[in-house]
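Entry 14. Structure prediction run on the chain below.
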Amino acid sequence: HVIVPMIQNSRRLRDSLGYVKSLLGCITKGSYGSTVHGQILQTCASSGRLAMEDPNLQCLPKTYLFHDPDEQYEVNIRNSVIPVVAERFLLSADFRHIELRLMAHLSQDATLIDMLRMGSSDPFRLLARKWLRNPDGEEVLDEQRQQVKALTYGLCYGMGAARLGESLGVSPREATKPVSYTHLRAHETRE
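Output returned:
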């Protein structure tokens, strides 16, 4: 329907303005003029990841595309964040699936390592296909992918069957089915 793109554009625009307002609210005057200095928090996230605040530059969205009947507009809020001093630079690093990559390295699980080496494929879809024993041509549903992702990180961080079942919306018994397979694979890897 014609109204759907209008609603999507409206939401994207609202989100973009929210980020811009957040950045403008964090501007301070200093020796380099008006700048924004986010604070990196090393110990606040329970997952052990780095976090940031005032503003959270990690959450700045990638490029938004706005469409109207005649033209397409591109908005990239990340381009507004630049280093003040010419000799300095900003590093933007995507530690894509870092915990999964560490698990693969530490366990030396050949299947998991191969999945991650494929690069362009989504490793959680590949894991879901393998764990759920879906044939290669059969599509993995988004919900199945999310469950396998929750299972993987849950195992990585020591989540038990009761908590995993709660987070997945299934019984603890149901949550242990893929866990049993995973423990079997981990045992095979250790041998």
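Residues 181-191 have pLDDT under 50 and may be disordered.
Filed with the rest of this week's runs.
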